[in-house]
């Protein structure tokens, strides 16, 4: 609207978020500017802090506020297993489910560098098993096959979370119980 450039810019910014349509964006913008500007300020400062202070863990690639994330530096985690996930968001989902007590590795993008990093991590922590928690599909199979081949000299066991996870469905769309079961029923990759 004319004369409301800043408000419009805020609506634009909200509607750029995943899953937020124009209508919701407008409601959010109205809420933080007019209904509860304190909540708005809190949101602005939380976004600013999170962007500045959240980095990738040097070892696993997960979200962290330090060089090593909470999970990698937690002595009580089971360092026998590394769960390989597609992106850092999957760690948040698996952690929420409480289905897993080992360490993680974020593949992000399949590259030689990423696979070497995984091999290094497996050696450093003395891992015994690599568990793949990928969205099932052809490319996932190909990636697992490649990684198994590349890491074949490390004496690791390879498994993948059970097929209860439907083909093409990403982890964030699976309920906690199914995820728990998929982790428990993991099988040889
Ligand atoms: Zn980490």
How would you characterize the overall build of this protein?
The protein contains 7 helices and 7 strands; from the N terminus they run H-H-H-E-E-E-H-E-H-E-H-E-H-E. With 189 residues, it is α/β, with parallel strands linked by helices. It has 2 domains: 49 residues, Orthogonal Bundle (Helicase, Ruva Protein, domain 3); 125 residues, Dna Topoisomerase Vi A Subunit, Chain: A, domain 2. It has a 5-stranded mixed β-sheet. Helix 1 packs across helix 2 and helix 2 packs across helix 3. The site of zinc ion has 8 residues, from loops.
Keywords:
189 residues; alpha/beta; Dna Topoisomerase Vi A Subunit, Chain: A, domain 2; 2 domains; five-stranded mixed β-sheet; 7 helices; 7 strands; 47% helix; 15% strand; elongated; binds zinc ion
How are the SSEs ordered, and which strands pair?
Layout: H1 5-15, H2 22-35, H3 37-53, E1 55-56, E2 63-64, E3 78-85, H4 88-97, E4 102-106, H5 112-125, E5 129-133, H6 138-150, E6 157-160, H7 176-184, E7 187-188
Parallel strand pairs: 3-4, 3-5, 5-6
Antiparallel strand pairs: 1-2, 6-7
Helix pairs in contact: 1-2, 2-3
The chain binds zinc ion.
């Amino acid at each position: 609207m004319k004369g409301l450039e800043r408000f419009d810019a805020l609506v634009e910014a909200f509607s750029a978020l995943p899953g937020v349509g124009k209508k919701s964006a407008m409601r959010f913008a109205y809420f933080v500017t007019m209904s509860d500007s304190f909540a708005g300020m809190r949101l602005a400062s939380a976004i600013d802090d999170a962007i500045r202070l959240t980095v990738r863990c040097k070892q696993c690639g997960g979200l962290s506020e330090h060089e090593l994330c909470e999970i990698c530096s937690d002595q009580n985690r089971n360092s026998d297993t590394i769960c390989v996930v597609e992106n850092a968001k999957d760690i948040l989902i698996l952690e929420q489910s409480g289905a897993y007590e080992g360490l993680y590795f974020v593949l992000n993008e399949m590259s030689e560098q990423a696979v070497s990093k995984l091999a290094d991590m497996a050696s450093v922590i003395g891992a015994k098993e690599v568990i793949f928690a990928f969205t099932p599909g052809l490319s996932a199979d190909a990636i697992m096959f490649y990684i198994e081949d590349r890491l074949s000299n490390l004496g690791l066991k390879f498994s993948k979370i059970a097929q209860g996870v439907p083909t093409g469905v990403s982890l964030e769309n699976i309920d906690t119980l199914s995820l728990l079961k998929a982790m428990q029923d993991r099988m040889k990759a």
